[in-house]
């Protein structure tokens, strides 16, 4: 269903950095705090909240004990479950009751009583299935768009013209339509999406031990690489290898957790070789 479930538990106050990522739907089962987004504005957390795909890294502070259950929503999952253009809710928190209705509070209360990730996923499933049954079907043209973006992203260091050409040949879409769909699904235009691919791919390779000289190839120079990685992950190349947040480390170690699993398949070699 283009959804990945996650769960986090901490025993004390935490402050951290969240890299640019997929759209998220989160239940705060214990704890509360605030998030500071890329433009500097701050928002208080809510018991159940949705965030669109981000445009850059953001920071958070949560007073513990903290426990969270959440779902990462890939492109089609976002469209069918949330239904709002991603760029309209990027870099902000949305009260999930606005989207799912007041029943979400009863589900939150139930999740607070559960212990395992498997139990929580099972508890959420009926609501997911009702939403999927009621949702409008994703247009065939949009499915083709997502496939072409996936292939484009997997081609190494792709050019924007290559994306436009492939879309025109296979779907007849013009540049404006491609730009609109990129914003609708990924919260930014093609060039911003390309920068995300490049920066997160580089961060993954650095964290996994690749030489900086090899990682730097798609960038103009070392300074450009450092700035782009910092913009999208909140870390420098040096800090990606030392003293990194364990949750961020897990997302960089496991290609299945790449920030756009619908767009960059798990089988793609992100090193570009």
Description:
It is built from 13 helices and seven strands. It is an alpha+beta fold and 273 residues long. Strands 1, 2, 3, 4, 5, 6 and 7 form a seven-stranded antiparallel sheet that branches.
Return the string of H and E elements: EEEEEEHHEHHHHHHHHHHH
Q: Give average pLDDT, whole number.
A: 83
Instruction: Determine the number of helices (DSSP H or I, runs of at least 4 residues).
Output: 13
| Computed CA radius of gyration, to the nearest angstrom | 19 Å
Report the sheet-strand fraction. Answer: 15-25%
- Derived from helix and strand composition plus strand pairing, the structural class reads alpha+beta
Helix content: 40-55%
Put the structure in a nutshell:
The chain is α+β, with helices and mostly antiparallel strands. The chain is built from 13 helices and seven strands. Strand 3 and strand 4 form a beta hairpin.
Secondary structure layout:
Elements: E1 3-10, E2 14-18, E3 23-36, E4 42-44, E5 48-51, E6 58-73, H1 75-81, H2 86-89, E7 94-95, H3 97-100, H4 103-113, H5 117-134, H6 140-153, H7 160-171, H8 175-186, H9 190-207, H10 212-215, H11 222-233, H12 237-241, H13 246-253
Helix pairs in contact: 6-7, 9-11, 9-13
Question: Which descriptors apply to this entry?
Answer:
globular; 47% helix; alpha+beta; 19% strand; seven-stranded antiparallel β-sheet; 7 strands; disordered C terminus; 273 residues
């Amino acid at each position: 269903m283009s959804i990945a479930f996650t769960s986090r538990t901490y025993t004390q106050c935490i402050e951290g950095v969240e890299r640019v990522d997929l759209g998220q739907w989160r239940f705060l089962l214990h704890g509360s705090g605030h998030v500071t987004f890329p433009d500097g504005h701050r928002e208080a957390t809510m018991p159940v909240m949705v965030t669109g795909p981000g445009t850059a890294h953001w920071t958070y502070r949560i007073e513990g004990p903290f426990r969270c259950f959440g779902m990462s929503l890939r492109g089609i999952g976002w469209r069918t479950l949330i239904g709002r253009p991603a760029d309209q809710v990027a870099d902000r928190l949305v009260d999930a009751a606005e989207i799912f209705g007041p029943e979400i509070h009863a589900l939150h209360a139930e999740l607070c009583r559960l212990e395992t990730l498997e139990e929580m996923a099972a508890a959420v499933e009926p609501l997911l299935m009702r939403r999927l049954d009621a949702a409008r079907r994703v247009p065939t043209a949009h499915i083709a768009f997502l496939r072409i973006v996936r292939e484009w992203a997997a081609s190494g260091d792709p050019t924007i013209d290559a994306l436009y050409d492939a879309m025109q040949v296979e779907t007849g879409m013009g540049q404006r339509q491609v730009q609109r769909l990129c914003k609708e699904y990924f919260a930014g235009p093609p060039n911003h999406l390309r920068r995300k691919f490049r920066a997160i791919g580089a961060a993954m390779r650095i964290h996994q031990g690749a030489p900086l000289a090899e990682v730097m190839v798609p960038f103009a120079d070392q300074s450009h690489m450092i700035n782009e990685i910092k913009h999208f992950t909140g870390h420098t190349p040096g800090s990606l290898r030392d003293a990194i947040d364990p949750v961020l480390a897990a997302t960089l170690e496991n290609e299945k957790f790449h920030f756009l699993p619908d767009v960059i398949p798990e089988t793609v070699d992100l090193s570009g070789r």
